[in-house]
Design goal:
There is one protein chain. By secondary structure, the protein is an alpha+beta fold. The chain folds into 2 domains: about 180 residues, FAD/NAD(P)-binding domain; about 150 residues, D-Amino Acid Oxidase, subunit A, domain 2 (D-Amino Acid Oxidase, Chain A, domain 2, 2-Layer Sandwich), CATH 3.30.9. About 30% of the residues lie in helices and about 30% in strands. It is built from 11 helices and 22 strands. The strands form 5 sheets. Strands 1, 2, 8, 9, 10, 11, 21 and 22 form an 8-stranded mixed β-sheet that branches. A hairpin with a 5-residue loop joins strand 15 and strand 16. Helix 1 packs parallel to helix 7 and helix 3 crosses helix 10. The longest helix is centred in the C-terminal third of the chain and has 18 residues. Bound molecules: flavin-adenine dinucleotide. Flavin-adenine dinucleotide binds next to helix 1, helix 2 and helix 10.
Length: about 375
């Protein structure tokens, strides 16, 4: 039997960031990861770090996360290929442009500085983009990171700061009794802690359910495509909406162009997401429409990843209404990589102070009460 202050289930970017913030505050932390750190959604995503286009409910958390990303080298000892070269969302029609104008107005209310660009400005600054675009909205301080580096380096930093991080160990059973939480792992170890953080990504809904906090959780498998290396021209991320779905594209300095547009197919029991080839072809066609100079180049790889989703596409980041000391952080719905470090900070606040200064009112687990007729 091992005792600690806080137990974390899940070594994605959310769990590892929570471990880092808790260890910085000298709390005893054990993080349990069934595979390896950052091997699920956190390690296979597109790497986009955007505030642009975020729901109002996410802005405060996203801003907190941006502060961390801006000092990543100082925090974890590596730059994780973080680059802030802007995120541009573009419009093919007036309707979309009006949505972006409304977003920019809302964002200014949060003291953010979005830039609205006309079609003439787009052609001058992005001559390689489609000539059919009528305008765009840019957040110059948004950027990208290498997801294969970020979560492992955050995990390493947490370990250096004193967190105990266990890989290839799954939480087989977790319960609460009079002494707090008792967690039994697949390796037969038993841990006790005052606080349990559920940062289990796509599996977080199942863990919440095992404690009686049932929410209507879903899964998602965004599908990524990468090209062979080509001359470096695309700086920053460009995002467009076609047929109600987004296509996002960026180029790494080595030359490969990455783009994403879902969905693949999730098999949660097998811990895997599978690509649907036709969706990759569809994404390639939309990418070619947006960035015509890509036409002669080859696609070299496509992949997907398992992600948790909630019906309103916002995460649950909240204390359990039923189980004292249980804190949930799951269902990041395809955009939790950027939010990860902000969520880690909030989780440490909730675990150690019982409250946080960051506005997380949009992520309450109770928002599903009315629709679902109550938590079961
Ligand atoms: C292909 C793709 C592209 C994306 N692109 C972007 C993007 O550009 N920008 C962005 O902001 N977001 C993006 N996202 C979303 C983002 O990756 C996720 O929202 C984020 O990584 C979620 O982090 P997490 O820590 O909650 O989950 P995860 O990374 O899934 O981590 C949860 C961990 O919990 C572990 N676990 C589960 N059950 C147990 C158990 N019983 N015992 C022990 N461990 C357990 C899992 O093994 C897993 O490692 C993308 C996602 C995908 C899949």
């Amino acid at each position: 039997m091992k005792r600690t202050d806080v137990l974390i289930i899940g070594g994605g970017i959310v769990g590892c960031s929570a471990a880092l913030f808790l260890a910085w505050r000298k709390a005893g932390v054990v993080l349990i990861e069934k595979d390896t750190i950052g091997s699920k959604a956190s390690g296979v995503n597109f790497g986009g770090l955007r505030i642009n286009g975020r729901e109002p409910a996410e802005i405060a958390l996203s801003v907190r996360a941006r502060e961390f990303w801006g000092r990543i080298r100082e925090h974890v000892g590596h730059d994780c290929e973080v680059e802030f070269s802007g995120h541009l969302e573009v419009a093919y029609n007036e309707q979309k442009m009006a949505v972006m104008e409304r977003w920019a107005q809302m964002a200014r209310g949060h003291r953010l500085v979005p830039e609205l660009l006309s079609s003439t400005q787009l052609r001058a600054e992005y001559p390689w983009l489609s000539g059919s675009l009528i305008g765009g909205c840019r957040m110059p301080a948004d950027g990208s990171a290498n997801p294969r580096l970020a979560t492992p380096f955050i995990g390493l930093a947490a370990r250096r700061a004193g967190a105990d991080i266990l890989e290839h160990t799954s939480v087989a059973h977790a319960e609460r009794d009079g002494e707090g939480f008792k967690v039994t792992t697949s390796t037969g170890d038993v841990f006790r802690a005052r606080v349990l953080i559920n940062a289990a990504g796509a599996w977080g809904g199942q863990i919440a359910q095992s404690f009686g906090d049932s929410v209507p959780w879903l899964t998602l498998a965004p599908q990524m495509v990468v090209s062979e290396p080509l001359p470096y021209r695309i700086r920053g991320i460009v995002d467009c909406e076609v047929g109600g779905r987004y296509l996002y594209i960026r180029q790494i300095p080595r030359g490969n162009v990455l783009f994403g547009r879902g969905p693949g197919r999730v098999d949660l029991e097998a811990d895997r997401a599978f690509v649907i080839p036709q969706n990759g072809f569809n994404a390639s066609n939309i990418a070619l429409g947006l960035v015509p100079f890509l036409a002669p180049y080859h696609i070299i790889r496509t992949w997907s990843g398992v992600e948790g989703k909630l019906p309103d596409s916002l995460p649950v980041l909240d204390v359990s209404p039923k189980v004292p000391g249980l804190i949930h952080a799951f269902g990041f719905s395809g955009h939790g990589f950027q939010l990860g470090p902000g969520s880690g900070g909030v989780l440490a606040d909730l675990a150690l102070d019982g409250t946080t200064a960051t506005d997380i009112s949009g992520f309450r687990i109770g928002r599903f009460l009315a629709k679902e007729g109550g938590l079961t």
